[in-house]
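Ticket #4471: structure export looks truncated?
Reporter: QA, pipeline team
Priority: medium

Steps to reproduce: submit the single chain below to the structure queue and open the exported record.
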Amino acid sequence: DKNGNSMNIKQLIVGFVASSVVGLTHAQTLNMLSSWNQNYAGMKYTVTRFAEMVGERSSTLKVDVKGPETVSSFEQLEPVRAGLFQVLYTHGGYHYGTTGIGMGMDAVDGDPEKRRTTGIWDAVDASYQQLGLKLIAIPTSGDGYHMVLTKPVGADGKLTGMKIRGTPVYKALLDHLGASLVVLPPAEIYSALDKGTVDGAAWPVLGALGFKWYETAGYMLRPRFGDTSHLILMNLNTFNALSASDQALMLKIGSDLEVETYQQFYELADQEVAELTKLGMKTTQLAPDIEASLPKVWADGIFGLVEAKNGAAGKAFADLARSTGMAP
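Actual output as written to the record:
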């Protein structure tokens, strides 16, 4: 109007837009390391989904994901503890040299609600906080592991004499099956299968399709076993520096992600197996007596490693899992 109010409105609009831009500029970026790249099918439903959920629900935080091409899968814990990166998506077997507690979750019933109500989730959180890390989520797929093999199960119904790629989490099980463990990072598995350096690879059921291991391995070992428990961890100082509302938001996102992935992964795993079958992979079965022994052997082997690494704290963790009926 003649008194210049329109100019004032324009100034208000410009000021609002400018303040919004400043707010966006100062949104905190959490740099996240992932132990896997996008070839791993689970990435889409875990770390990628986590980053999306933070972006959708928070106006103050965002997540930028870097894969193992930035830092090797087995070397990612330390840079997150040091604060060079703020968040980590990984598996406990990849940092067993530091602690076995995260790896121990693979022997624990995968139901996310039970993991929290029995106190096991809190126990894992407390353990990692001693390392300067805050547990955000344990996205899990039940019935989650299998092995791809270049040849079928032997006449004795086991894997006698075979060399199987894995991490320490598989050692006791492979010993029981007569095989030997070969530790390799994910990026080297295809080549090792192709060259005959290994006779197979132990891995979550989701994975062989994205990594194209069906080109170098013709068999899938049955039965499937264990619960694949991944970890989302945050640098503890970074977490403590967040506002109370942002801390609560991160933990709520973590909790929601656990429920979401646990419901999804059974179906996704079955879909992947169906696709692998179409591509020519066949199943090969362990002998019935060996099959029946797998759950106990798997749990005993994992908890043995946890106790060997973490001493009394590892034993307390195993005792908690078993006393609450969460492990055999």
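Status: closed, not a bug. The export was complete when the record was re-opened. Leaving a note from the reviewer for reference: Confidence is low (pLDDT under 50) at residues 1-25.
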